[in-house]
Each structure stands twice: as structure tokens, then as C-alpha cells.
Amino acid sequence: MKQVEHTNDERAMLQVVKHPFLVNLWGTFQDSKNLYMVMDFIEGGELFSLLRKSQRFPNPVAKFYAAEVALAINYLHSLDIIYRDLKPENLLLDRHGHIKITDFGFAKKVPDITWTLCGTPDYLAPEVVASKGYNKSVDWYYSMLPNANGRWSLGILTFEMLAGYPPFYDQSPMKLYENIMNGRVKYPSYFDATAKDLLAKLLTADLSKRYGNLKAGSADVFNHPWFAEVNWERLERREIDAPYIPPIRPGGGDASQFERYDEEGEEYGDFTSKDPYGHLFQDF
To answer: What pTM, to 2 d.p., does this model score?
Structure first.
């Protein structure tokens, strides 16, 4: 399932990237049975949980989160990294309400084009469905996710935040493929006109017309009228207040914004037993 490759790639990508809206990797190590990645603890929970609680976000709220995500994606593209796993579950909120993108298991360094199929029915881009190569514009449009479950990128994410549901959903996989290939999106009447215009330019199957893939590159996205009032420099410096501040207790270690799961009971710290897989993760 390429999990060895994805795990090593995740470490390699996180070791390189440093950005206000990306989770920070402090270091990695391994024992005889486990791999460890020491990362920031982001207390505010998933954007997914907030969106489900809110049902949908007002236009300014969706714009704030979309703008922070756009800055992070643009930074990754400047390093020739395609993220390919944009979805609300991978967008965490820090204690001040700002975005932190996590889970780089499907990130890939791609200077020009890649053919990797790493997504399934739900939200594959048309060029992936058609088995054509794709480039960095997939992040502005769609991205692929693990375990063959496809989901969001900036266009899909923004639609989902504004509407509360994705644009191409259908229970039938074949109908999903048709919807994606046709690229026909039904916009709710309450959508802001400029938001609709941006989404139409992101959610187009025609690569020669898709924003993020044209001559101006990401500038088409940043200069779009929907983002007109965004001060990108101040936003990147985190000087603009977030629309929602998670209710985090003072001090450290508050995990109340996350669902509770039973511990797996895994024993940690065995450095003496033979490790048959250690050679696969030499950089950890």
C-alpha cells in the first residue's frame, strides 16, 4: 500500500517545511517496533468538527480559513511539494484559532508532473479519473487522500465550508466520476457572487482554464475579487484575529477539543529486540 514510502516521505517533507500554517516537526526516532514523530500539539481540534457543528460557515469565516490554506499551499508549491490531502480533518486550529495543516503522508516533491493515483471515487480530479498526468494545480482543485478515499483541495474545501456539503457527492461511484468529469456544479442561491466566480475558475475540468494552472499561477487565486480585502502579508504574520477562538484551558495539554479514543495498549520503548523493518526507515 506504499505506506513505507509515504511514511518516509512525510518525515522528509516535514523536515523541510517551516510555515505559520503548517504543523512543525521537532524530530523523529524509532524503537524496535515503532516509529515516532515529535510534533506540535495543536489544541484547538479539527476544522472538520467546527464545520459540522456550525453546519456551514458565513462568507467571511470561510474566506479567512481559505486564505490561510491558500498561503500554506502556495508556500508548499514554491518548494515543488504537492500536498494532495486537503480536507477539513487535516486542518487543525491552534489555540488562537489559526489553521495548521497536518498529515503529510501523501505529500510529494514534484517539480513538474506526476502520474501517481492515490485517491478514489469521491473527489478525484478529472485528469486523474482520465489517467492523465497532473501537476500542482490539483491542490487548488482537488487532492487525493489515503486509503483510497478522495477528498478536498482549495476549491472543494471552500465550497464545503460555504455550503456544508461537497459539490460532486453521489452514492454511486460511477455517477461521482460523471459529475467530476462533467464539472457541473450547482451553487446555492446564498453564495456570494465573487465566491461563485472563484469556485467556477477552480472547479473546471479544463486545465487550460483552471486557476492555479495559468500563466499567472497562484496570483490568479490571490488577486481574485473574493479575496479583495485580505491583507496577505498581515494574515501570514498571524496579525489578523481568527473568527473563532477555541475554548482552551490555560496551561498545556488540554485535549478537550478532540474526540476520546481508547488507548491501543502498545508497549513503547523496546530498543533491544530485533527489528526486521528498521532498515526501511533509516532516516528516523
So the answer is: 0.86
